[in-house]
């Protein structure tokens, strides 16, 4: 029953919403992801600079990549190619292209409606822009509960199972001891709060990403003469024009879009929670940075995995097996048996940082629901660590199927909120574009120009005291945005 519900929600409804609304946001924004593509690299370079004791835009980017660049980039791509053929890669690209606009707006809005947490840091995300932008506290509460259950608990147990069993297969490490060791290391990071999580992600994410890209690029470069033909095969297979994969056209579209969505997370409502923690001069600048992270996740890392699999000679139409095994064996077919060990180690790093990301999403949801309760926070940490130990020894496939459903519901709530707040996002984007057109190198957000919005004066000091109050009706807000 869970599988039937999940196939309908994530295999049909979510695909239509993600691609449909992503395309709508792309058109309304006049193709923001294309207009700002070159600018993304400039903003990325500027993001390296922090502001005082605040987390920098770069650290927020590393946090989001900790979640985006995970097992989906290894196992997810393998599953997409196995079930959908090479054409699935093309539809992953399409999903990322429209998803870049969704990510731009959700992360921009997360910055607009972020709140200072009293400890010199910021909190934000869909729950905050639903409450302060739409004035729908009940909807924000639903989103937070779904976020806490999905990322804070279910996905962490699954990630623990994935990494401990991968290490057992590669090195023979007993899963129970690996699970305990993983929980201890994670606990040391958790107690340091968001700053320590950001610092660890700041270190590990570039290492894991560059190492993985480097090895896969080596495989690609050794067979560079085959790459043009393989790219042609990918495009032709996407439209059923390649005879060997003509029967996989429907599967290519479904698997490409589905795995693409879950790999880059654009529109799901997860990344805005970490995008909001950065200290930036203009909300749209963080939107640009996070759109860049979608590009890096799919067009760089997922494409590297796909080409590694398709060029290795190991993959053949009709291959049966899981995505991790396919990627491991594909690399081993080119570089030797150490390729399997490398994939296992890379997966361990991917999962470790992904759990940090998942944990923070749950913590952010918990604080929104209960406020700054130290008892609730310590209880949450203990439950997460216990679940990691337990999950390392249990196959949580049923829990994962349930989490897939709750994550789809999570995305549904977030996408509705994005559609309702698109006029606010467009206003902020136009302000950013106008300053850039006027020659301003780093646009600055003047909150006085957005006095009708419910902004936090501690987060945006220029916000006037007469900002919108919690009692204003959503209809009047929408009318004032026209």
Automatic annotation (TrEMBL):
<dbReference type="InterPro" id="IPR001463">
    <property type="entry name" value="Na/Ala_symport"/>
</dbReference>
<keyword id="KW-0812">Transmembrane</keyword>
<feature type="transmembrane region" description="Helical">
    <location>
        <begin position="373"/>
        <end position="393"/>
    </location>
</feature>
<dbReference type="Pfam" id="PF01235">
    <property type="entry name" value="Na_Ala_symp"/>
</dbReference>
<feature type="transmembrane region" description="Helical">
    <location>
        <begin position="175"/>
        <end position="194"/>
    </location>
</feature>
<keyword id="KW-0472">Membrane</keyword>
<feature type="transmembrane region" description="Helical">
    <location>
        <begin position="341"/>
        <end position="361"/>
    </location>
</feature>
<feature type="transmembrane region" description="Helical">
    <location>
        <begin position="399"/>
        <end position="422"/>
    </location>
</feature>
<dbReference type="GO" id="GO:0005886">
    <property type="term" value="C:plasma membrane"/>
</dbReference>
<comment type="similarity">
    <text>Belongs to the alanine or glycine:cation symporter (AGCS) (TC 2.A.25) family.</text>
</comment>
<feature type="transmembrane region" description="Helical">
    <location>
        <begin position="65"/>
        <end position="84"/>
    </location>
</feature>
<keyword id="KW-0813">Transport</keyword>
<feature type="transmembrane region" description="Helical">
    <location>
        <begin position="291"/>
        <end position="315"/>
    </location>
</feature>
<keyword id="KW-1133">Transmembrane helix</keyword>
<keyword id="KW-1003">Cell membrane</keyword>
<keyword id="KW-0997">Cell inner membrane</keyword>
<feature type="region of interest" description="Disordered">
    <location>
        <begin position="461"/>
        <end position="482"/>
    </location>
</feature>
<keyword id="KW-0769">Symport</keyword>
<feature type="transmembrane region" description="Helical">
    <location>
        <begin position="134"/>
        <end position="155"/>
    </location>
</feature>
<dbReference type="GO" id="GO:0005283">
    <property type="term" value="F:amino acid:sodium symporter activity"/>
</dbReference>
<protein>
    <submittedName>
        <fullName>Alanine or glycine:cation symporter, AGCS family</fullName>
    </submittedName>
</protein>
<feature type="transmembrane region" description="Helical">
    <location>
        <begin position="6"/>
        <end position="27"/>
    </location>
</feature>
């Amino acid at each position: 029953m869970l599988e039937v519900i999940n196939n309908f929600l994530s295999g049909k409804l979510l695909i239509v919403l993600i691609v449909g609304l992503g395309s709508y946001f792309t058109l309304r924004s006049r193709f923001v992801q294309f207009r700002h593509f070159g600018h993304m690299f400039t903003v990325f370079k500027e993001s390296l600079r922090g502001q005082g004791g605040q987390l920098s835009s770069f650290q927020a980017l590393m946090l989001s990549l900790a979640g985006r660049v995970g097992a989906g980039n290894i196992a997810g791509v393998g599953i997409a190619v196995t079930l959908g053929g090479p054409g699935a890669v093309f539809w992953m690209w399409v999903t990322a292209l429209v998803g870049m606009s969704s990510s731009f707006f959700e992360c921009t809005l997360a910055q607009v409606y972020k709140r200072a947490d009293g400890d010199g840091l910021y909190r934000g995300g869909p729950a905050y822009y639903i409450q302060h932008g739409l004035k729908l506290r009940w909807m924000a509460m639903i989103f937070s509960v779904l976020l806490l259950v999905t990322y804070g608990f279910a996905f962490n147990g699954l990630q623990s199972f994935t990494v401990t069993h991968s290490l057992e297969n590669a090195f023979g490490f007993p899963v129970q001891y690996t699970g305990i060791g993983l929980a201890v290391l994670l606990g040391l990071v958790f107690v340091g709060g968001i700053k320590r999580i950001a610092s660890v992600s700041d270190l590990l994410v570039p290492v894991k990403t560059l190492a993985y890209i480097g090895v896969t690029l080596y495989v690609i470069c050794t067979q560079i003469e085959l790459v043009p033909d393989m790219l042609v095969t990918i495009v032709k297979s996407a439209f059923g024009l390649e005879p060997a994969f003509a029967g996989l056209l429907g599967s290519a579209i479904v698997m490409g879009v589905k795995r693409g969505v879950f790999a880059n997370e654009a529109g799901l409502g997860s990344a805005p929670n970490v995008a909001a923690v950065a200290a930036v001069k203009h909300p749209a600048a963080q939107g640009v940075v996070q759109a860049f992270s979608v590009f890096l996740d799919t067009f760089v890392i997922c494409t590297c995995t796909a080409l590694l699999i398709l060029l290795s000679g190991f993959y053949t139409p009709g291959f049966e097996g899981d995505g991790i095994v396919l990627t491991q064996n594909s690399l081993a077919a080119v570089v030797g048996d150490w390729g399997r060990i490398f994939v296992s180690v890379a997966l361990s790093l991917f999962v470790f940082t992904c759990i940090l990301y998942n944990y923070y999403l749950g913590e952010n949801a918990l604080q929104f629901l209960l406020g700054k309760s130290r008892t609730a926070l310590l209880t949450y940490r203990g439950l997460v660590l216990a679940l990691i130990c337990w999950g390392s020894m249990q196959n949580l496939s049923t829990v994962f199927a349930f989490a897939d459903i709750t994550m789809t519901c999570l995305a549904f709530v977030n996408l509705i909120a994005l559609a309702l707040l698109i006029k606010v996002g467009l206003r902020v984007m136009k302000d950013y574009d106008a300053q850039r057109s006027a020659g301003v190198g780093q646009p600055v957000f003047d909150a006085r120009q957005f006095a009708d919005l419910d902004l936090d004066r501690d987060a945006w000091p220029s916000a006037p005291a007469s900002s919108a109050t919690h009692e204003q009706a959503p209809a009047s807000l929408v009318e004032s945005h026209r």
